Amino acid sequence: MQGADFTSVATLTALYLAAFAAAQRYAVHKMGTKLDGGSPRWRNFLGLLPQVCVMPSLWVASALVPGSASVFAAVFANVFGSMLLFDLCAIKYNAMMLAHHWLCLAGHCFAMSVAPEAFGRYFGAVVALELGSATSCSWWMWGGEWPRALDALYGGGMTLSNGLGAALLLRWAHGATSLPLLARCAPVPIVATLLFFRQKEMVALLRYGRAVCST
């Protein structure tokens, strides 16, 4: 990465971290600390910043701004990595949520370290999956106020998110040509299992209500 690109990545990452810190203070004050779906309400609210605003914007910018793909991909890598590290350090999750976050962090480190030719597909997969997570967070926070709208958003959004994530995962495995076949295929069953349980949880919550989820 050239000096100008490094400066751009560092500047954009610093701006994001500053915005995240300010948003965290607001979220704690505004939303409180009640657990919703295994996470504090303030964390569900705060997560919408990277999930809905920042990472999708970076993905669109990487596709539309000529010669900028590597810069925006690097900023995305910092944003998503910092989000996972923040969650692991700042929030007391149950064992299942901890395992989920550690798997995501390990996968993120793997994707950053190998097969740069396929990183754009990983980038798109994470954006798609995090948008699905945003529908879950929104359902937990506001589903009681707007049940029909949030049920539709959660059900449709999570299903679409999981489908896109699975498709882009397969495209990553196909496109990571610098890796041996086994290394390309190894993440597929792991991520497929995570997607299965995301979809299963969504169906159970919409069918039986919040009581099925132990927080």
UniProtKB/TrEMBL annotation:
Entry keyword Membrane: yes
Highest taxon listed in the record's lineage: Eukaryota
UniProt KW keywords: Membrane, Transmembrane, Transmembrane helix
Chain segments annotated as transmembrane: 6-23, 71-91, 98-116, 179-197
Name of the protein this chain belongs to: TLC domain-containing protein
Annotated source species: Emiliania huxleyi (strain CCMP1516)
Lineage of the organism: Eukaryota, Haptista, Haptophyta, Prymnesiophyceae, Isochrysidales
